[in-house]
Amino acid sequence: MKRDKEVPVPVLRRMPSYLSFVKTLQKQGEKYVSSTRIAEYMDIDSTQVTKDLSHTGITGKTRVGYEVDSFVKILEDFLGFSKVDCAFLVGAGSLGSALLQDKGLSAFGLSIEAAFDVDKAKVGTKVNDIEIFHIDQFRAMAAERNVVIGIITVPAEHAQNVADLMVAWGIKAIWNFTPARIKVPSHIVVQNTTIYMNLAILFNKLYNQE
Ligand SMILES: NC(=O)c1ccc[n+]([C@@H]2O[C@H](COP(=O)([O-])OP(=O)(O)OC[C@H]3O[C@@H](n4cnc5c(N)ncnc54)[C@H](O)[C@@H]3O)[C@@H](O)[C@H]2O)c1
After folding, report:
1. What percent of the chain has pLDDT over 90?
2. Which among 12, 97, 103, 129 would be 20 to 30 A from 61, CA to CA?
3. Any coiled-coil ranges, and where (predicted)?
């Protein structure tokens, strides 16, 4: 399978929606889907869909389009959703617990194996069968289980400290849910995620409508 290493982020943002749409068609028993149909669903141009999919090696047949089953398989592999990576989460508060409860994450290739906190009342308890350990146990457990993905859900003022510890303890990729902009060495992958940014966009669109 042809696979591009550097795929533009806007393309990667669209692909999960392509996948979700085609999986719905798959459940409905459809065998083929055209780029035009995906484009109509996405409200974008079909040439954009074809161009995006060219990164993945998915090929379509003239007039019928892409074969649905292989489309789903190739795109799931391409996006890294078909193999499950393990992660540790630090900060088992309200957001951290919500992530621990999310059974859908594994469908997207991520399994949170353990959580860590400094709150002694939380240590030893479980959320969705995932145990909460004291942060002091992170290093040894990450090394033992070869975990290289860390999720940060602590208050913003502690985010940098936790990120520094994660890097020192062998973490290679950090999914940062705090509003703090953490600084890490250039070889560490950081993905910042916040619902608040989307809320600001929603407000802006709502109140600036004609
Ligand atoms: N990305 C988003 O869309 C989004 C949404 C909600 C909250 N947040 C952010 O997520 C973070 C957590 O929010 P919350 O509402 O769950 O807070 P919370 O207070 O409920 O939970 C924070 C947890 O972190 C623990 N903690 C504090 N310092 C720690 C440390 N040094 N090491 C390990 N654990 C530590 C606390 O004991 C607590 O259990 C905040 O930064 C918040 O701004 C982001």
Report:
1. 84
2. 12
3. none
Name the residue of 89, 90, 100, 117 whose CB sits within 8 Å of the most ligand 1 atoms, as the mutation to test its pocket.
Answer: 117
- 13 token code pair: 């943002």
- Identify the residue whose tokens are 């308890």: 125
User: What is the pLDDT at residue 148?
Assistant: 94
Alpha-helix runs per DSSP H in the chain:
9-27, 35-42, 46-54, 68-79, 94-101, 138-145, 156-168, 195-207
**Model-level pTM?**
0.89
SS (H, E, C) 157-209: HHHHHHHHHHHHCCCCEEEECCCCCCCCCCCCEEEECCHHHHHHHHHHHHHCC
Q: Which atom of ligand 1 is nearest to the CA of 196?
A: 3
* CATH of 9-79 among 1.10.10.10, 4.10.910.10, 2.60.120.650, 3.40.30.10: 1.10.10.10
Spell out, as residue ranges, where the chain has pLDDT lower than 70. 1-5, 210
